[in-house]
Each structure stands twice: as C-alpha cells, then as structure tokens.
Amino acid sequence: MNEEIKALIDYRLKEAKEAQEEAAILLERGKCRGALNRVYYSMFYAVLALLASRQLAASKHSGAISLFHREFVKTGTISADVAKFIDIAFDLRNKCDYRDFVTPDAERVAELLKESEIFIATIETVLANIRPSNTT
Question: What is the domain class of 3-130 according to CATH?
Fold first, then answer.
C-alpha cells in the first residue's frame, strides 16, 4: 500500500473518531438530530477508510455502503451483525434529515453511538491486518 493511500486511511479514521466525539457532545446537550448525523458520519468515514484500502470509491453514500457490503461483508471480512449498524444509522439519518416532524429518540441515538464504537474498532482491526503496524 502506498503512502498516499495510508495517509488517506489515517485521515478518514481521524474524521470518524472526531465525528464520534461530536456526537457524544451533541447527545449530552440534547441535540439528538445532530448527534445522529455525527454518529452516521463516524461510521461512514470508517467505511471510506476501508474502501480506500482497496482504492474503491463511490459518488453516493448508498454506493459506498453497497461497495462496503460487496467487498467486506459478503466476503466475511466484516460480520453482518456489525455491518447492520451503518445500515440502521443511514436509514434513520435519512428519515430525520429529509422528512418533516421526524426526530430521533435519544436512547436510540446513544445506542447507535455505542454501536459506532464497535463498528469503527472492527474496521480498524481489519485495516491493521492489511497494512504495516507502524502506520496509524
């Protein structure tokens, strides 16, 4: 894996962690819609990091998630039980962002935040097995 790809993966993982932190702050302040958005993006950025490891990209979120499923879930690299976390967050975020009068439940957002930690840790483990350990 070349240095440019490694740097991109690291950048995207950093974005994932920052989005998680932002989600926790927003949730603590009762801003559930914003927290849900950041939870979803934390997982999405991790997916982008994983796709970068194979030099894959998509122009739409649904396309990136589809590639993730094709390349990593269907092959057994990522379990379906973990992969479903991004699917749930994607669907809920779309409902809350694009439909009127839909507000996410604080408990569900908190649960998704915990699930995002599992999701990102799983992707970090996969990436650690792909690239040398001296890159972070």
Answer: mainly alpha
Q: pTM (2 decimals)?
A: 0.93
Burial category of 99 from C-beta neighbours within 10 Å (exposed 0-12, middle 13-18, buried 19 and up): exposed
CA distance 53 to 62: 19
Contacts of 63-68 with C-beta under 8 Å, sequence gap 24+, read 65/90
Confidence of residue 133 (pLDDT cuts 50, 70, 90): very low
Taking alpha carbons only, the member of 25, 23, 27, 52 closest to residue 40 is 23
Both tokens of 61, joined, read: 């979120």
| Domain parsing of the chain, residue ranges | 3-130
Among 35, 20, 30, residue whose Cα is nearest residue 97: 35
114 neighbors 74 (Cβ within 8 angstroms): no
- Local confidence band at 130 (pLDDT 50, 70, 90 cut-offs): confident
Give alpha helix (H) positions in 29-99: 32-52, 61-68, 80-98
Give Cα 39 distance to the centre of its chain.
8
User: What is the mean predicted confidence (pLDDT) over 68-86?
Assistant: 97
